[in-house]
Amino acid sequence: MSLELSAPPGSEPACADDGVWLECIECGEQFAPFDEIHYTCADCDGLLEVRYANPPTFEEFEGSGVWRYNAALPFEEGVTLPEGDTPLHEVPRLREEIGVDSLRIKHEGMNPTGAFKDRGMTVGVAVAKELGVGRLACASTGNTSAALAAYGARGGMETLVLLPSGKVAAGKIAQASLHGARILEVDGNFDSCLDIVQELAGLGEVYLLNSLNPFRLEGQKTIGFEILEEHYEDYGEYPDRIVLPVGNAGNTAALYKAFRELVASGALDESEVPTLTGVQAEGAAPMVEAVQNGRDEVRRWDDVETRATAIRIGNPVNAPKALPGIYNTGGTAVAVSDDEITDAQRDLATSGIGVEPASAASLAGLRKLRANGEISADESVVCLTTGHLLKDPDAAFEAGGDPEPVPNDTEAVLEHINDGETGTLGGIAQKISAAADSPGVPALIGGGIGLAYLAYRRLRSDDA
Ligand code: F0G
Fold first, then answer.
1. Quick check: CB of 251 below 6 Å from ligand 1?
2. From 89's CA, which of 200, 229, 307, 361 has a CA 20 to 30 Å away?
3. Is the pLDDT of residue 339 over 60?
């Protein structure tokens, strides 16, 4: 099975363990999955994929969460909190405003540690246990470190995380810290952290659980299975397009792998595969640069900057797996500004969906591609939101309104809120006014009721 969408399943090699093996996507070399540790090909250093003798069908899926899809995973079960089974929100106002046939938000921020990384870690930490390794490690813009710390703790294992100093949102460091990871802050960006941790892994000092580890992506594949199943249940068809934020391009690679496996088993027709559309921040957009120039390779950006710190990445290591995913599904990639990201974060919040900035990139990207006509009005679209609002409280404060200081006194509070437009009593009075022919009278009644209530409260407190 190559990275072509139509590739048939490969035949099981002698090195396979229970129908599972590792295969280099560049030279095709095959490796036993659990005898030795491999992150990349021992021959050519190409990326590895987990391959199965029997690709999955929908009928085999049962239960809920990531392990519902164990027919497509290397084990029956893993170290679980549990994860997956995230909501596929409807957003009718946004759908109408953006102008697509249907729009759903797959909110991966609803996983146990608040990001999609949990899906990868439940599998990755299980593999670490199978291999019998000691110390688990990752480089991270924050979310991977939080998930590694939590799942490592759950599995009773030591964890080490390397973070770019000063560029990780507060919620994520707090999680990694409380779950007991040893946190090393590197004076460099994410890509330098990954260089270092890869070298430590090469020396056998740590077991690497970044998405370069092919088993991580197996867990993340389940996002694709869930979207297809949920969408089909609701609409009787699969979505035309999935729009997602891109950092290291792990999810893009993982979703594409999910679709390829379903095509290989005959469960999904090639024509039913959703178009994969990646979104990056303008200040960290090497994948977009590659796609817009039709290139098969990504040029590393040494200087990256964006408010969406989760995707502040200049060297997407999974690009060789993700670019075919975008090209072979007829997809594209687009860059959005930090302000467009914040606007989208506010829009989602207005629909009750709280996400961190990187997550909102998907909606911002959809809006941009719809506005320039690259996405048409008749499409059914799913936007992936990857992390929870509380991951980055500072960004949420900046995007939201400021708290208003008020005196410790009900009458003063009442006066304060009625000066604004949305005060509760004002709101009640406004509603009564709107319903009546003579607006002033009900407003007076509404206000009168409020004052009478205050007088009553004061009498009660005098009694006490
Ligand atoms: N969204 C969020 C919230 C993320 O944390 C990440 C990656 C991405 C999107 C990008 O996903 O790498 O699969 O393209 N965060 C990693 C981390 C790098 O260390 O937490 P991708």
1. yes
2. 307
3. yes
